[in-house]
Design a protein that fits this description.
75% of the residues lie in helices and 0% in strands. It has 170 residues and is mainly α. The protein starts with a helix and ends with a helix.
């Protein structure tokens, strides 16, 4: 076998084995990079929720971590609660837009379950749930439907939020 034939055979081997292997390595690296980006996004969201909890702690007089709502909040306390709830809805919507998918991998589902748990916990609070119609104005329609569904599941109450976006779509 001549050198030219050997080189030609080598080029065939590279084409048959090397090219698919290079494509596979590229695919694996891209997948790892995507997983790292998703993990980083999840970590940023978790950090944001921890920062939110610090705000809740700074306003302990509002009793936002106890299950029953504050019996008779003052107008100033109501205003602070509404602002804190508004921050929470913004965080929940961001988590929904970044992390929620109709079809999720096991890892994505595990991450999402944490957010779903947080939303359910807050929706069990009367004061938060009763503020939802005001808080959800102008929010993403899919997010509105999702959190409305959660609130209804958690309490069995039907929330009058359904037609918030109706006027903007016509």
């Amino acid at each position: 076998m001549s050198l030219a034939e050997l080189l030609e055979m080598g080029s065939y081997a590279v084409t048959v084995f090397g090219l698919p292997y290079a494509a596979w390595v590229f695919w694996v690296e891209q997948r790892k990079e995507r997983e790292n980006e998703e993990e980083e996004a999840y970590q940023h969201l978790s950090d944001a929720y921890n920062d939110f909890l610090k705000v809740v702690l700074d306003h302990a007089d509002l009793q936002l971590r106890t299950n029953p709502a504050l019996p008779e909040p003052t107008p100033e306390q109501r205003e602070r609660m509404l602002i804190i709830f508004d921050m929470l809805i913004a965080l929940f919507e961001r988590a929904f837009l970044i992390a929620f998918r109709e079809k999720m991998s096991v890892t994505e589902q595990r991450r999402w379950n944490s957010w779903d748990d947080y939303m359910r916990e807050w929706c069990r609070r009367d004061d938060f749930r009763q503020s939802l119609p005001l808080l959800l104005r102008g929010e993403d329609p899919d997010f509105v439907a999702y959190i409305r569904h959660i609130a209804e599941e958690e309490t069995g109450e039907h929330l009058i939020i359904a037609d918030i976006h109706k006027d903007t779509n016509t």
